[in-house]
Amino acid sequence: MPERKTAIVTGASRGIGHAVAQRFRSLGWRVITLSRHPLPTLCPWSTQENTHVELDLSDLDQIGRTVDALRPLLGGSRLHALVNNAGISPKGQMGERVNSLTTDLKVWQSMYNTNFYAPLILTRGFAQELSNAGGAVVNLCSIAGYRVHPFAGAAYATSKAALAALTREMAADMASMGVRVNAIAPGEIDTAILSPGTDRIVQNDIPMRRLGKVDEVADLIEFLCSEKSSYITGAEIAIDGGQRV
Ligand SMILES: NC(=O)c1ccc[n+]([C@@H]2O[C@H](COP(=O)([O-])OP(=O)(O)OC[C@H]3O[C@@H](n4cnc5c(N)ncnc54)[C@H](OP(=O)(O)O)[C@@H]3O)[C@@H](O)[C@H]2O)c1
After folding, report:
1. Per-residue pLDDT reduced to its tens digit, 34-77
2. Cross-sheet strand order for the sheet of 30-35
3. What is the set of active-site residues?
4. Which of 20, 85, 110, 153 could link 11 by a cystine bridge, Cβ 3.0 to 4.6 Å?
5. Mutate which of 34, 35, 146 to test ligand 1's pocket (most atoms within 8 Å of Cβ)?
6. Is residue 61 domain-resident?
7. Distance 2 CA to ligand 1 centre (A)
8. The total number of structural domains that make up the chain
9. Any idea what the CATH number is for the domain that residue 196 is in?
């Protein structure tokens, strides 16, 4: 019988991560997920045992426990894909951008824990399992990582820029192990992370004049985790309806 492929997707309880987990499952993969909360009960796989771990990636101690918590769920199998998707974007009380001068240092630290240290620790923690499968890592960066954004805060933006740099470094370090490491940089995708006022960005800054859909992001992540992208590593691919131009 052909081997069932396995993916770990962080932050799969809603939004992009949920769509990605659904996509892998529709392809017959086993999908192991991690978020702070349980999966929503409406989720078709929420009742499946031993595929979900609840941990808070903004807490460095808990990040340190992720690999040990997830490894038993893998059950010794190879790891074909790791999608470092979990993320949060802190905003001001009115949904406004929180800037570099006033953001509390605790917020900077929790942003870097979630957006930078968690991908680092998970990727190197599962390096061997990924290598055994010739697997792929996809990191969720952001348009805010290379351009000041009206709503995304400074701590969020710089942590995503650091994650883009980490993607390149790890692509170089893991190529000889047969592991590809790429990033995607979404613009405005229709999820709960968006701020009120995003409609102005859509009208003024996005040439395609619409939000992206989570399934369109899942298409790109599926591609980056497939043989069709076998010569792509260390890339950061924008998915933003042209917002970047
Ligand atoms: N949507 C966009 O327009 C956009 C644009 C650029 C980049 N991105 C990036 O894409 C990724 C997914 O975003 P999304 O739009 O799908 O967001 P979302 O709908 O808010 O979902 C975020 C997911 O991350 C999990 N999560 C958040 N903080 C966590 C923590 N500390 N520990 C563990 N899990 C955590 C959440 O689950 P729990 O609440 O249960 O923990 C949830 O499953 C993020 O990295 C985001 O920065 C999104």
Report:
1. 999 988 777 766 666 679 999 999 999 999 999 999 999 999 99
2. 52-54, 30-35, 6-10, 81-84, 136-140, 180-186, 236-239
3. 156
4. 85
5. 35
6. yes
7. 33
8. 1
9. 3.40.50.720
